[in-house]
Structure prediction request, 602 residues.
Amino acid sequence: MEPIGVLNDGQIYDLQTAEALNISGDVVKADNSAESLEILRHSCAHMMAQAIKELYPEAKFFVGPVVSEGFYYDFKIDSKITDEDLSTIEKKMKEIANRKLPIQRYETTRSEILEKFANDELKQAVLKNITDDTLTLYKQGDFEDLCRGPHLPNTRMIRAFKLTRVAGAYLGGDEENEMITRIYGIAFFDKKELNDYVRMLQEAKKRDHRKLGTELELFTFNEDIGAGLPLWLPNGARLRSKLEHLLYKAHRIRGYEPVRGPEMLKADQWVLSGHYANYKENMYFTEIDGQEYGIKPMNCVGHIQIFKNDLVSYKDLPKKLFEYGVVHRHEMSGAMHGLFRVREFTQDDAHIFCMPSQVKDVIIDVLEFVDSLMKLFDFKYEMEVSTKPKKAIGDDAFWEATTKGIMDALDSENLEYGIDEGGGAFYGPKIDIKILDAIGRKWQCGTVQVDMNLPSRFGVEYINDEGSKEQPVMIHRAILGSFERFIGILTEHCAGEFPFAIAPTQVIFVPIAQPHVEYAKELQKELLYEDMDSDIFDMNESLNKRIRMAEKKRVPMIVVIGDEEVENQTIALRDRRKREQSNISKEEFFTMLNQIQKGSKI
Ligand SMILES: [Zn+2]
Ligand SMILES: [Zn+2]
Prediction:
């Protein structure tokens, strides 16, 4: 395969740049590796810009970076781009690819660029963020753009691509600025990879949790209430409360104690925690009796004060406190997306206080917890360890011991993990848990974070075996991350076919006629005693219509009730998922449901 660049110290250079700057390193080939795709996709972004320029000569361009979903380019034209226009732009791009234009890098000076783009306010905005005196341009045919690269040697190599969607974007991501147009796209080196990806996108569209959330009446958003503030409808609230209930037990069995901190704390606490200095823009504040209060963006401080409420002996460690903590964080209005990104959400948050020597065992416990939770929902997952960043507090001994503790724990469980060198928080190393869903997408959810910063800021102490005070290590831990995001991911993962244990409705009863409703109500009540929800479909429609309506609700089981069932106290059961029908006694029905329920232990 053709070489297209070199990788040096984590930085990708194209061949022209490597030659000009005399940089050597590992060769990057056109082989669909992450590095090669970055070069391809960014080159594809330029090719898209060239196509747009040819179709809309007035077009002005901002930036066109590579992102996790492919690439995009932000630009401005006089008309509005629709989905149909995307295929026109794609056609033009194919034409440009076939022209086999060489992509040429050349250096120039800042003043020359300022002059060249004198009438282009978007390029002027880009230049504001660049201070270099020598700048580079990439030219293909008669299109050229200010750019650092990396790029492919020619347009012929960009063959398998697709423009995926059009969106609006604030210039430079700043809500104060004007809205310009953004087109997203994707590219691969071969057609098969592209086709697989496009199929995945189509599947993802079908499973979109915003669409399913409406269909299954799980949640909604309402502009009158405010953006990013979900309203949980009865079905969604049932689902969520079942998930909470399952997890509550799982925490208690593992020695966690439930606690609850207040929704808002005096701002002084956020000054002490460092949030006031470093996180203020993401927080909401209010005032009570002339005193400033901050609405919590995290639950750590409340848990610290709860820990400090008692004199804790080393014998009580590790101490595990958990809370379904409701937090508020300011997200830009453009960044919000269904349940994935909201302004209010609930974390399955826990803080474990332990001695440094216990870090490894605590992490092993957490990993076991993660594993059983992921198995229950049929998720595969990956781990990544982030190590000491350049800017960090704490001595080397702390970093060495805790990072080793984390890795030893993962090794002892035979778990594979990636390493993000230098990617840790300034106060400690962490593990990120990445969920892989049914259609191959990766989602960052839970994290396990070792922290010595907050215990030291808040003077957290325990009494050691010699009777003197010592500072514990604090481990922040969330497995789902947030209920909102996790339920969004789970909805798409199982396409709304939730596992029995947390399904909003586990059974739908379909009485054949009015006299059979009574028996259905009786069964419904008995199910509630067993923590299971059911609905009765006795609306004024034909039996067949009601059965079809029930089938569409993605409910695990449908039970039809007629004379025979009422008389013999039996159940005519359709297991929708196993596609089975059976006639069983009421007792057998309840035993069966309880067995399924019990199988969902975490
Ligand atoms: Zn470029
Ligand atoms: Zn925390």
Q: What stands out?
A: The domain at 505-598 is CATH 3.40.50.800 (Rossmann fold). The longest strand covers residues 160-170.
